[in-house]
Amino acid sequence: xxxxxxxxxxxxxxxxxxxxxxxxxxxxxxxxxxxxxxxxxxxxxxxxxxxxxxxxxxxxxxxxxxxxxxxxxxxxxxxxxxxxxxxxxxxxxxxxxxxxxxxxxxxxxxxxxxxxxxxxxxxxxxxxxxxxxxxxxxxxxxxxxxxxxxxxxxxxxxxxxxxxx
Length: 165
Description:
Number of strands: 10
CATH architecture: Roll
Number of domains: 1
Strand content: 35-45%
Order of helices and strands: EHEEHEEEEEHHEE
Low-confidence stretches: none
Radius of gyration: 15 Å
Mean pLDDT: 88
Distance between the termini: 34 Å
Shape: globular
CATH class: Alpha Beta
Structural class: alpha/beta
CATH superfamily: Gamma-glutamyl cyclotransferase-like
Largest sheet: 10 strands, mixed
């Protein structure tokens, strides 16, 4: 069984329901060693202009981000998710990288989807509709979760640097 970390549009309860996930299967967590950033070209969302970036994570030992953990997923579910997340690579996180909000309990056997290198760009800004879905999703988990989301989400600034959203 797998525990999947979601950090973008799947933060939203309605998006989780579309994937057949109910609230009894989720837990709020913090993920250490990665930064959440809008720098991923979309695989299936259609947008014109440079406001088309979707979420990605980048390795950064000094960073962390908050997320939703979907518990105890079957291999069949993961195989289907691999198709949905075709612009991303599924990776395993190290035991100790993921802890539960509040208790700090360590969660093991976690996977996450990280953007494929060839699908990343520093010349794009967040897709505004997608960002609103993510932000609403974070807000649905409470004020502290939303505040942490905003403190740990970055975007390109089009001058070659990355800044907080």
